[in-house]
Backbone:
């Protein structure tokens, strides 16, 4: 019994090879596109925990450090460190007189006349005014409308995630006036404004389930924004 053999020409082999190569390249491009999409959807901006003891009629936002005595030039994306406290933050923008920071660590405030230093640039400057209880917008820098963002506001009693809770955009009634809560407003495609009520922020006590009010507690807030679209 003889077995027939089939001869495959070089042109057919080349055609198959090119087809496999094309399919592989298409699959790789699809995977890369999906990875990019997932990364984009998971992108976020975090203020870090910022210390305040005034929660009433406030604009809670990013730490903005006014500075003077500049030597050198700060770089966007670098870490700046404050002397004495060791507080750090990552530069989001620099106007030449004001740094906007994210991912704050340390005490949650920067103090007047303390020197800050850029980790990469080596630039130095002196903080021009305490940052505690100073109103600001939250700068996320995504260049997206609010409808494409998820904005979360957390409060912590000590500036740690372990002792934090999320507060919602609610207004509670006190003496027939809705004055406790906050609302998120659009400033532009790179900034939002977290406006608190004239009575502070209402919250539900974890143990008793009753209403509480955050007005003058020396606590911390964190704003975290996710890119959703």
Residues:
């Amino acid at each position: 019994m003889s077995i027939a053999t089939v001869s495959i020409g070089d042109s057919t082999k080349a055609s198959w090879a090119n087809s496999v190569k094309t399919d592989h390249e298409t699959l790789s491009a699809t995977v890369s596109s999906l990875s990019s999409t997932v990364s984009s959807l998971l992108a976020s901006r975090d203020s870090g925990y910022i210390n305040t003891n005034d929660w009433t009629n406030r604009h809670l936002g990013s730490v903005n450090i006014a500075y003077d005595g500049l030597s050198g030039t700060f770089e966007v994306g670098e870490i700046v460190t404050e002397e004495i406290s060791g507080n750090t933050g990552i530069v989001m923008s620099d106007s030449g007189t004001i740094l906007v920071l994210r991912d704050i660590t340390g005490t949650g405030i920067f103090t007047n006349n303390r020197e800050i230093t850029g980790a990469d640039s080596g630039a130095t400057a002196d903080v021009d005014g305490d940052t505690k209880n100073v109103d600001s917008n939250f700068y996320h820098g995504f260049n997206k409308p609010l409808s494409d963002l998820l904005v979360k506001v957390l409060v912590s009693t000590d500036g740690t995630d372990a002792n934090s809770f999320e507060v919602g955009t609610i207004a509670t009634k006190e003496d027939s006036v809705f004055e406790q809560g906050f609302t998120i407003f659009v400033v532009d495609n790179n900034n939002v404004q977290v406006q608190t009520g004239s009575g502070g922020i209402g919250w539900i006590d974890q143990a008793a389930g009753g209403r509480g009010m955050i007005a003058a507690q020396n606590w911390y807030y964190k704003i975290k924004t996710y890119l959703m679209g």
Q: What stands out?
A: The mean pLDDT is 88. The two ends are 67 Å apart (CA to CA). The chain has three domains: 12-42, 44-57+136-227, 62-127.
